[in-house]
Amino acid sequence: MTAIVTPQREYDEIDLSSRAFWATRAADRERSFAALRADRPVSWHRPVEDALMEDPEDPGYWAVVRHADIVDVSRRSDVFVSGQGVMFENIPEEMLEASQSFLAMDAPRHTKIRKLVSAAFTPKQVRRIEEQIKANARDIVRELADAGSGADFVKQCSGQLPIRTLSDMVGIPESHRESVAHAADASVSWADPIYLAGRDPIDMIFEAQMTLHGVAFEMAEHRRAHPAEDLMSNLVQAEVDGESLTDEEIAAFFVLLSVAGNDTTRQTTSHTLKALTDFPEQREWLMADFDGRIGTALEEFVRWASPVMTFRRTAVADFELGGQQISVGEKVVMFYASGNFDPDVFEQPGRFDLSRSPNPHVSFGGGGAHFCLGNQVAKAQLRALFGELLSTLPTITAGEPDYLAGNFVHAVRAMPCFF
Length: 419
Known about the structure:
6% strand, alpha+beta, 54% helix, 18 helices
């Protein structure tokens, strides 16, 4: 990569790169985002604290916090590319390839691989797995009810449906499901000191990647000889313009799917339960006509949760954004949680409003080539799970959840779901 000379600039006084910032409550962070949106929607910040790989030559990044600018960056893939990484820090190319698949690619390669895998995410394919999603949701809520008071909702409910759905979609054998779930969690928890428990984050990530790649290689080999109606069979058989996916490409996509599909839906489910508890009138409104109102409500679920906090691009051309001149080679980080609470787009953004329409949130991306390929699967899971929760456990209550404090510390670097 060609060295980039970045002009010396002062870092913004609101430090979005510090661990202390991400350890505060969402309301506190929103006050900081609001100040930036109002006065300096594109601001310059120091390199992120506790980076996975320290880079003494990293000058920092531009923080993009306004909805309109996030959409602009998302759709201008001719200017802002993903192939140089999607996290705050710079990651070696071989690590990007192995863990982030076409999430960290640009056209034409991104176009080719996305086209090869997209057949598994058509509305027809989603409808095919909906009955299994509903059955899994019923089982999970029954198990949660049987567990009784004091059950860990995140562990026993919101974390269960994504991995079961993934397993059914891809065809993960029962013998590998626990190891896949554990490796997926490890891949997004490397910045959480509680989860790390003294382990080296690089070693932990490497071990998780090897586990997921090993499962993918084994499954691909088996499905070539014994095809079935699942995503892995589609991947090994897929062909576009005479080209098929290599085992390495299949494994990389399996890592992305395992991590992204698991973490984001879990976060959305957890935050939504808390919101339905904090705003009982919204829960009652939804329950009054669940089937007729859940479609609109789902969009507010994901806006409110904003399960993917950030996503980075890198400028490959000079560009003016939000009154700032972005130079070639500079990193641009989109803050989705800020964009989703932009008062220029959302009336009373701090209100959890399940009837909100239109709801142009950026939780699935701001449009463009990397818009979330799995968004319909995520919505199918949320629809099924909350249909069961609200009908089976109508008096849901929740105290201050422990998961908020822990996950928000490391969610800033969680793997985005945008494919």
